[in-house]
Every structure is written in C-alpha cells, then in structure tokens.
Amino acid sequence: MIKIENVHKSFGNLKVLNGINLEVTKGKSVVVIGSSGSGKSTLLTCINGLEKIQEGKIFVDGIEVNEKKTDLNLLRTKIGMVFQQFNVFPHLTTLDNITLALKVVLKKSNEESKLIAIEQLKKVDLFEKADIYPNKLSGGQQQRLAIARALAMSPSYMLFDEITSALDPMLVGEVLDTLRILKKDGMTMVIVTHELRFAREVADLIAFVHEGKILELDHPGEVFDRPKNDETKKFLERALK
Amino acid sequence: MESNGTVEIITGLHIGDFFFMLQGAKRTIILTLVSISLGTILGLFIGILRGVFNKYVNYIFGLFLDFVRSVPLIIQFILVNAYFGISGHAKSPFFIGVLVLSIYSGAYISEVVRAGVLAVPLTTRRAARSLGLSWFHDLFYIVFPIGSRAVFPSWINIVIGLFKDTSLIAVIGYIELLRAGEIIITRTWEPILVLGCVGLFYFIICYPISKWSERFEKKVLT
Q: Which of A33, A142, A152, A236 could join A86 via S-S bond, C-beta 3.0 to 4.6 A?
C-alpha cells in the first residue's frame, strides 16, 4: 500500500504540494487529474523519492520514503515509473534498455535478464525490435519500451506521469492499451493523465488536484457525473468541452 | 674532412640523423601518451565534480582552470621547472613535462567532461534512478556512455593539440622531435629539409588519429 500523509513540497518559494493525503491500496488504480502546474507530476516523483518533501510522510509497504535509513535504490525497484518524455536510454538497444537494471540492480545473470526482457518485449509487442536502437522507434514504441523496462523489474506499484502527453494522437491508443492490460492483471497504479475518458475507464479512484491539494477523491462516476467541488466542476467543464 | 686543414662544421645529413630524430619522435609520443592519460583522469575527476556538484566547488576549480588555461604553456614549463630547481628538488625535464602537460590538458578535458555530463538530459538520469540505479551506476552506465559520445570529437581535438604542444617542452631542455630537428639544423644548415621531415612526422601521426576518430564517430557513436 502507498500511504501519503499531509505532504508539503515546494521548489524555492513556489509551493507545489500543499498537504496531500492519499492511500493507494493493492490492486487499485488511482488516476490523478487536474490542470497543468497543479502538482500532479511532483506528487508522483515524491512517491519514489526522486523529489524530497519538506513536510509529511510517504509510506510504501510501510517503509517511509524520506527516512534517512531507507534504501531508496532498493525501494525504487518495487516502484516502476514511466515518464512523459519516454526517457529510454539512447545508447542501448531495445533489449539492453531492459536488461541494464536487471543486471546492475537486481544482479541477475545475462541469460536470465535476457529471458525476462524478451518476455516483456513480447507483451508490449516490440520483440522484433529487440536489437535496434531507440532512435529507430516511434514515440509510441519508445513509450511502450519504457513501460516494459519498468515492468521487467516486477514492481509492486507503477507510476505513470502523463505518458501520452508527448505522443502523436495516433499513437496514444497503443500506449493506453498497454495500461488496460496492466489494469486487467491487477497492477497497483497511480496514473497522472489528461485523457479523461481513459481515466474514467481504468480508475478505481479519481483524485482531482488543484493548487497542491486534493479537492475531490471518489469513484469516477461520482467525480465525473456528480462533482461536488466548484473547482472540479470548472475543470471538467473546460476539459470535456 | 680535414684535407685542407680546416674543420668542416657544416656537414650533410646522414643516416644517424634520421635515427636521432626517430628517438626524438619516440619521446614525443611517450610524453603525449603519458600526459593525455593522466590529463584525462584528472579532467574526468574535476569535470564530474564540476558537472555534478554545487557552484562553490565550481568556483574554486573554475579559478584554477582559468589560470592554467590563460598562462602560455611555455611560461608554465619555465615556472614549474624553476620552482623545483629553486626549492632544491630539481626534477628531470620529462617529469616537469608530464606534470605541466597533464594539468594543462586536464584543465581543457575537465571542461569537455563537464559539457558531457550536462549533455545528458536530467530526465534520462531520473529514469535511470527510478529503476533503482545508484548515483554511481547512473554515472557509469548512463552519463559516461551518453556524455562521451557528445564530447568525443572535442577530446580528440585536445589529444591532437597536446601532441603538437609537447614541442614547447624543448624550452627546459628536453630533446623531443622538434628539438632533435633543431639540433640537426644547427649542424647541417638544412632547415627546410629537416623541418619538413619533422612536420611530416607530426602529420603522419595526427592525420590518422583524426581520420580514425571520424570513422569511429560515424560507426560506433551513432
């Protein structure tokens, strides 16, 4: 379980998170929506400790992320993350993009790493591209590779940070399909997205974030059809127009 | 030679001169190899510190590097040599040469390394860390390979520049290729021929390096 308690985060004078409370239970997917700059992405990077928080606590499986004793590198193997800009490693082949962390972090043998990588590549339909470099892949393919790379570590949780925002509209579908499969397999996910139709489809809970606070947290039906907060209403009106 | 009772000072080139120059060339190459190796290690160290750490580290090293890069190499040779001489720990010209050239090339290389570190997108490094790679793993498996591709041509330029700069060490009495040539010229008075040979030798070494690096860049780094 991921437990976020009263988290505050600022960059210099800019307050980005302003007392966030959220629980993500096993097997559930929480979709975070809200305008740009509301702090959604920062929230994700705080969960795996890429960003430090100034106040509050975040627990992943009972381990406090910002505790000094916490082995963040170990903890991060349990939390997969996929980014907006794909961030595949340009100097490694598709296959090696996946095997790197398996070998270096999880200390798996070459053979085992390769087997895992091939299995993951098949899942995201990139097996034929195993030996080519990412610059020969389309945006959608690169993003699927990034997803496969994260999944290869067998994480307990997955964080998705606007993973379709940098994609051609034509390529959004193939990436979202990958997420649909994950959802079916019962992966625990926190998804930040602007694709509201998709959000409604895969979310167990929708969190609407505004100015660093969660203003509404409920089932998709409630949030989308019967929003209670005025800011939520305004946002949905603008977004669904 | 002494047929008419005079000593002939000016004599023609002979085969021994060629070997003399070859010996100078060997010294030039060794000096370059040792200096560029040490300079690269030093440059990596300083460059990574500067690329990764805060502005204070940057400022202190920056000052030192600016000094090394602003003072002409030939003066650095003389000053460092004089320092060791005056302090009573005179060192061989080879030692002084390696010391000065390593620091000099290290200064330039550190700037190249820093540029290389900064050429790696922060988001790529974050992705690496999100997979559980440690700071050191990130540096070794992500920053080095991506950054070195970005700055390899600049590094090659420094190697070639340094190879030619070794000739300045003659000022403290080290007989490398150019100095060997000059010695022969004082005896033979054949400056054009001898300097032509010396120049050709520099070219024979530098040209393949730059050609090879171009091919290496095209083949391996893209």
A: A142
